[in-house]
Amino acid sequence: MSSNTPGQGGGRYVAPIEETPVVAVDAVDESQKAQSVWGDAWQAMRKRWLFWLCAALIAVIVVVALFPQWFTASLPTGGACKIGQSLDPASAGHPLGFDKQGCDVFSRILYGTRSSVTVGLLATLLATLIGGIIGALAGFYGGFLDSLVSRLGDIFFAIPTILGAIIVMQVMPWDRNAITLSIVLAVFGWPIIARIMRGAVLTAKNSDYVMASVALGLSRSKILLGHVIPNALAPVIVIATVSLGTYIVAEASLSFLGIGLPPSIPSWGGDISTAQGSIRQAPELIFFPATALAITVLAFLLLGDIVRDALDPKARARR
Amino acid sequence: MNATPLIELDDVRVAFTGGGLRRTKTEVLHGVSLDIRPGETHGLVGESGSGKTTIGRAILGLVPLESGSIRFRGERIDGLRGTRRRALATQVQVVFQDPYTSLNPSLTIGDTLAEPLRAQGMGLADARRRIRELLDAVALPSGAADRLPREFSGGQRQRVAIARALAIRPALIVCDEAVSALDLTTQRTVLELLLSIQKETGVSYLFISHDLSVVRHMSHRVSVIYRGDIVESGDAAVVTSAPSHPYSRKLLLSAPVVDPAAQAERRRQFESEFAGARR
């Protein structure tokens, strides 16, 4: 058999290889510092003043939630509330006056931050963990597990989070507190995260680099953890940041309806509900917790927006 | 035959099951046989949808066979699962067409190259040394290891993908349209790189392409695949310059040449041979 020797002649004209060595034609530009995915997102975020405003607001909110006693000497509940002070105007040490129960409004708002932030963070964390794990497994392994999880998700999807939470909180035999409330909200909130994680995992799973890893002989669990999840995480983080704000709203709504946190735990939703009763005598009382709620939710929603812009360069290019 | 084949496909059939209730099967390879010898490049040409990529994937064990067999050094490798399949990964590797999707965007080049080495149980220090060697072999600076894929051009990424395939010193690399996404100059340099690596390491290539001139440049032997059948197979010089099967001739005459006079001649020949069958 006559053998052909490769490398001799080509079908078309290209400059001789001696004149165009690979190092010269396609040199690596090493003048720039090496980048990283999250480092890049950080670079994009730090240039925007809105990011710093949100970050500052959230920092203040978190500090208040952790140490409300640093900002006020009065306690928001129990013996500190004297019915004799009911609807008393502002005085020294009590800058926002007293509510109908005779509790210090400023103190109640500061201590109420803790409920909102705890429920927001905990519910988001739980929903992201549950939804993320379930979505990733469903998307990656597919088959029966995927069908089961998708239909289960559909069922939960059909029930509005608030409605589901109202029913469960009504009949729940356990104590109502920030932890049980967060669990209930997460139980109804995980399908959104699961669906997004599943989609992102499906995209990553069918990419060539996963094929290459299969060909390299990596085990499935290593591929899932090393290649698929890191590339599917960005959209989930964005949704999680945005949903933090919505969980805070959900907590306030439930507490307003009287089935969220009990009156013994200060909560903005509960305060709005109390202030509603005295809206003719002291309309400003409804304004304070509502403003606190609006600012907190806005800060988290805007941060979610900024994170999305930073992690999704396509959205950035459109502005 | 002057050498025992490294890999041997015998009457390989592959079918894909469609979705829906009826689950109709579509056969994409109708009994393909070919063999690749050690240190040889076997070119595989054919149009889109002809099944050339499927052949590569079947060798890599990424698609199941309907019937037929694939032997590697005489041992059957089709249908292998788990650890034995993974052991084969040290012997057969792949370079994909699109260098923009074949590298994990969130891993640095160093991590991407370390993965196959670590999967074979190599220590950290040894792996690092090997990565430097590999980057050197594909003419990339060692500083590239700390960078992410998106900082590199298409040609550079393809060189990284080649380095990854080389990492564990395989006996065969499936190059699935490995240069088709690159511009001509880069294409040429990557092809030269593949040839020099073959000269040094004696690796075999299954070189899949739709580009006849690239296949001619690279291959010892060439098979032409058309709609799931190998219609012509033989010495590269013969198949790519004087093919006997009508489809191979059509493929040859469809490829444009630089010289206008030669191109006019080619067009005339095409028309006379395939009158009324214009593409």
UniProtKB/TrEMBL annotation, chain A:
GO cellular component term of the entry, any: plasma membrane
Name the InterPro entries on file. Answer: BP-dependent_transpt_permease (IPR050366), MetI-like (IPR000515), MetI-like_sf (IPR035906), OppC_N (IPR025966)
One of the GO BP terms on file? transmembrane transport
Q: Which Pfam families match?
A: BPD_transp_1, OppC_N
Enumerate the transmembrane spans.
49-67, 117-140, 152-172, 178-197, 228-250, 286-307
Which keywords accompany this UniProt record?
Answer: Cell membrane, Membrane, Transmembrane, Transmembrane helix, Transport
Keyword Calcium applies? no
Name this protein carries in UniProt = ABC transporter permease
Q: Which organism is it from?
A: Mycetocola reblochoni
UniProtKB/TrEMBL annotation, chain B:
MF-aspect GO terms: ATP binding; ATP hydrolysis activity
Q: Quick check: keyword ATP-binding in the entry?
A: yes
User: Sorted alphabetically, which keywords does the UniProt record give?
Assistant: ATP-binding, Nucleotide-binding, Transport
PROSITE patterns in UniProt: ABC_TRANSPORTER_1, ABC_TRANSPORTER_2
Q: Which GO biological process annotations does it have?
A: transmembrane transport
Does the keyword section mention Metal-binding?
no
The record, for Pfam families, names: ABC_tran
Cite the SMART domains for this sequence.
AAA (SM00382)
Q: Could you tell me which residue ranges the ABC transporter domain spans?
A: 7-252
InterPro entries registered for this protein in UniProt: AAA+_ATPase, ABC_transp_ATP-bind, ABC_transporter-like_ATP-bd, ABC_transporter-like_CS, P-loop_NTPase
Q: Which domain of life is it from?
A: Bacteria
Instruction: Name the protein family.
Output: Belongs to the ABC transporter superfamily.
The name on file for this protein is: ABC transporter ATP-binding protein
